[in-house]
Amino acid sequence: MTKKQCELNNVQEKRGRSKDEEKRGQIIEAAGMLFVEHGFEKVSMEGIAKSAGVSKQTVYSHFGNKQQLFTAAIDAKCEEYNLVPEKQGAEMDFETYLTYFCTHLTSLLNSAEAIGIFRVCVREGGNSEVGELFWAAGPGKIRQRLHGYLSEQCRLGHLQISNIEFATSQLIAMIHSETQFRSLLSLAATKSAADLDDYARSCVQMFLKAYRA
Questions:
Q1: Largest CA-CA distance found in the chain, in angstroms, rounded
Q2: Beta strands of the chain (E only): which ranges?
Q3: Would you give the DSSP letter of residue 88?
Q4: Residue 5: its pLDDT value, please?
Q5: How far apart, in whole angstroms, are the C-alpha atoms of residue 132 and residue 171?
Q6: 171 burial class (0-12, 13-18, 19+ CB within 10 angstroms)?
Q7: 3-state class percentages of the chain: helix first, strand second, coil last, to nearest 5
Q8: Angle formed at CA 154 by CA 151 and CA 157, multiple of 5 degrees
Q9: pTM here?
Q10: What is the full DSSP assignment across 138-187?
Q11: How does pLDDT run across 47-93, given as a tens digit for each residue?
Q12: By the 8 A CB rule, do 144 and 84 touch?
């Protein structure tokens, strides 16, 4: 999914929101930008309220504390890339869905926001709470969804996997590309969006060669 497609989806989603949902979205968007720019510790609920253009009371009416808001910001970014099997998986055969999942995950992992949050977690490596929050809302949730989907495809007889935990790790590890690693190190990207899309598709084919029933 391109950045323009994500922005279009966001615009369409906002049109159907209530005023309360719009404010919640404003708060999450402002929080995400501030966390990426300043890190977790230096961002305050007051600062988020000011950036979002709402009152501090409004922020607290939606989120009890900064930890909940950090989690919501990560969760919102993951949802933006439509990685939920329940929404798309039922409409696609397993190979099409795995391709969909991996190409969208590649786009997410290489997005400026995801790279920024990764850097925040590394920068605040002494704070295990930040790492735990990030893992639970992002990588951990994505792994859980993929694990569940692979389990279901094995039950249906489409895949034959003896250790689904290993297979989940293998597929996600392949998606973490050279380009993402270079971006984390602030080095210039060597691959285009089209290259990354092709790479993700090749990962799926390699995965299916090993596990297709």
A1: 56
A2: none
A3: H
A4: 52
A5: 22
A6: buried
A7: 75, 0, 25
A8: 155
A9: 0.80
A10: THHHHHHHHHHHHHHHHHTTSB--S-HHHHHHHHHHHHS-HHHHHHHTTP
A11: 999 999 999 999 999 999 999 999 999 988 888 887 766 665 567 89
A12: no
